[in-house]
Amino acid sequence: MGRILTEELLDKIDQYLKGELSEQERLSFEKLLQEDEQLQEDVIIQKQLFAMHGTSTTDISSNETDFEAIALLKEKLKTDEYLRLSNKIRTIGNENRISNGKPRKRKTHYLNYFIAASVTIFFATLFFFNSESSLESYYSENVNWENLPSFIDKGNALDNFTKGEIAFKKKEYKSAILSFENIETTNELYPYSLMYIGASYDVLNENEKALDYFNKLSQLTEFEEHTKGFWYQLLIHLKLDNKEKANEISKIILKDKNNYNYQETLNMKL
Fold first, then answer.
1. Which residue in 194, 49, 184 sits closest to 121, CA to CA?
2. Domain ranges of the chain
3. How does pLDDT run across 197-241, given as a tens digit for each residue?
4. Which end of the chain has fewer CB atoms at under 10 Å, N or C?
5. What long-range pairs does 137-141 form, CB within 8 A, spacing at least 24?
């Protein structure tokens, strides 16, 4: 919206929170609140600031927008909104600087307190958001499809596996899938084709298909590295933030210390 927080607006927020507005002014302000998301954040921050300094405020939890619950903001904020809030804090700070060699008067100190509260709430919210997204962070930290086994040097340049692997490395995932799907189940490279197909679907965000192929891999018990299929399924469930499914797969992996990435799974502490 590009609105700058002014002393006048702060006064209006203060009066609203302290119950000093007339009935008509209050209704008008609350109507504006419903339409202005940035103002909602300003009110939340100011209310938190009052709480930090022991200043009592009126009960506004009955309003259509529940400003009492900071959790609402935590659930609502996304990365771009964090940036917007951060920019807003920075803008307030710039407005607060000395202008023409003269310090701002009246509520300069008050604006400084507001900035401090903004920063505190901003990083508290960021911490909450990151902790809630820890499953996806596990995925990001552990996924690395570049490390899939390579057989380019061992195969003919025209065979399906080699063509699929070359396409995969070129990030041409749909073409890679088409090549790998032509690998016969009797081919010794068939299990590896399942890895590449699942990885391709993962990158393409076709997660259910990725899970299907990784499950097929985990069922090839005669294949020495079949337990990689469990690990890859775990990664997808982490990516999808599906804690229940992630726990189910992790329990399978943790049944045997010889299973692929047993220790990494243990360290996740799901």
1. 49
2. 7-132, 140-268
3. 999 999 999 999 999 999 999 999 999 999 999 999 999 999 998
4. N
5. 138/238, 138/268, 139/235, 139/236, 139/238, 139/239
